[in-house]
Amino acid sequence: WVVTAAHCTDGADGVTVYLGATDIKNDNEKGQQRIYTSKANIVVHANWDASTLSNDISLIKLPVAVVFNDLIQPATLPKMDGKYSTYEGDMVWASGWGRDSDAATSVSQYLRYIEVPVLKQSTCKTYYLGTVTDKMICIKSVDKKSTCNGDTGGPL
């Protein structure tokens, strides 16, 4: 299974999942796997709301087994320890092939990544009035660098 954003899969007839890729235009990149799956294998959260972005999560069931290697590994989730952590102040990694600036007209060919801090929920809510819930995580830009359009659905 692959976790992504509902707004990336909602209404899609199918998706191609890129595993171990750093160059999305290079079909022959060493270690890269591309797996296509149809809409029948896409599960969008039942309460996904495009107008509020609530429950913006989707699962993709891959039709074949993933071949793990040095570049492709399953995600390791943090332990819950019986309570939900806000991760406020923690440093996290975000990555994607999104635009490299607000002025860019196309996404990046190469995978980009950045380490950023998780914002306090109260701070985030002042920036995005009415759209941020306690089920969301916000990150802070560092030195005017952050994620951009096209990075959504990628790992954090």
Automatic annotation (TrEMBL):
Domain Peptidase S1: 1-156
Short name of any one Pfam family annotated for the protein: Trypsin
GO molecular function, one term: serine-type endopeptidase activity
Chief place of localization: secreted
SUPFAM superfamilies named in the record: Trypsin-like serine proteases (SSF50494)
Protein keywords: Hydrolase, Protease, Secreted, Serine protease
Keyword Transcription: no
Name of the protein in question: Serine proteinase
Source organism: Lucilia cuprina
Lineage start: Eukaryota, Metazoa, Ecdysozoa, Arthropoda, Hexapoda
